[in-house]
Design brief:
By secondary structure, the chain is α+β, with helices and mostly antiparallel strands. It has one domain (about 5-125). It has helices spanning about 30-40, 70-85, 90-125, and strands spanning about 5-10, 20-25, 45-50, 55-65.
Length: about 120
């Protein structure tokens, strides 16, 4: 079973020399905040998104490259905190969501490749 519960985002900017970007999943109240404090990692939050009817939020953030191991350790502790705070299916639900999104991403990229091939075939014909 998949245990990774976050995405790493690639950004091309000057700031990406110093920061890594992530999306992780939290709930209200923000359980991860106390874990970041406990692990002594500073996190800069960007945006968050919620789906109606879901208790989870997708949180976009950045972390200094040197603090990434502490950040990932805090996210590992988040799994246990979710269970203790009444979200026993956190791992399964987020893993399922991430798998579904990655399948959709693969399908979209597959469609783009097909379109590029069709365009190339039209040019050579």
């Amino acid at each position: 079973m998949r245990e990774k519960l976050y995405w790493t985002i690639s950004k091309f900017s000057f700031a990406s020399l110093f920061y890594d970007y992530f999306v992780f999943f939290d709930t209200m109240p923000y359980l991860a905040d106390q874990l970041f404090i406990r692990h002594k990692v500073r996190v800069w939050f960007d945006r968050e998104y919620a789906k109606d009817g879901s208790p989870y939020l997708a949180v976009f953030c950045r972390v200094r490259k040197k603090d990434v191991p502490k950040f990932l350790a805090a996210l590992e502790d988040l799994k246990n905190s979710m269970m203790l705070c009444g979200h026993p299916h956190y791992v399964e639900e987020i893993s399922s969501f991430m798998d579904e999104m990655e399948k959709m991403k693969g399908t979209l990229h597959g469609d783009e490749d097909d379109t590029a091939q069709e365009t190339e075939q039209k040019r050579t014909a």
